[in-house]
Amino acid sequence: MGVRLMVVDDHRLLAEALASALKLRGHRVLAATAPTAGAADLVISRAPEVCLLGTGTPAEPGMFDPVVRIKRERPQVAVLVLGPVPSPRGIAAAFAAGASGYVRHDERIEGVERAIMKARAGEAAVAPQLLQGAFGELLNPAAQPDDEGRRLLQLLTPREVEVLVRVADGEDTRLIAAGMGIAPSTARTHVQRVLMKLGVGSRLEAAALAARTGLLDRAGPVSRTSPPETGTGPES
């Protein structure tokens, strides 16, 4: 039997792709929205059985405030947090806020669906490997943990970071070109460079990788007033 659910994520492309996949598997998706700023109001008004709530960096103060409010006003709604690679503090903070589970942004649809069913049944929905990783980090903290998001960010130029942000927002080549004041052929070249540098084969994979690693959060505010450029060759 399908689940009445909502998908809320700051990255519209991810929210819509996940919602479409869940609809195909027989679930009733009440809404797939962005951004998460108004998530609590929307969830409270629609009252789904399960809410998939996207987050950025789990340890950021106030990140799980929407979860707290949803559980206070709609305690019957199970909230599943969608986030990047979590830290032990991130997982703990999600559950402390009242979340029913934590699912990585890059989890396969089968794993997301299992988490949804567990959450609706009132069970804790978190992959065993996430718990193992959390306990492992707590018991044997790395002196200099590998920061994949920072490493990937260093591979991209500022212009490519802006392209990645737009890709994650669900913009197609035409919108990217118009927003950046460049030719569509140049926009396509930038997108292909981003995919190549990130080692992925599609825009959806790039958006998922950026979300999982917290790359876009580390990029900070991205200027969207880049001057027009022409041609498709390498930038100087």
UniProtKB/TrEMBL annotation:
Naturally occurring in which organism (per UniProt): Streptomyces glaucus
UniProt entry keywords in alphabetical sequence: DNA-binding, Transcription, Transcription regulation
Keyword Disulfide bond: no
CDD domains assigned: LuxR_C_like (cd06170)
Classification via InterPro entries: CheY-like_superfamily (IPR011006), Sig_transdc_resp-reg_C-effctor (IPR016032), Sig_transdc_resp-reg_receiver (IPR001789), Tscrpt_reg_LuxR_C (IPR000792)
Protein's UniProt name: LuxR C-terminal-related transcriptional regulator
Gene3D superfamilies the UniProt entry points to: 3.40.50.2300
Residue ranges of domain HTH luxR-type in the record: 149-214
Location of the Response regulatory domain: 4-120
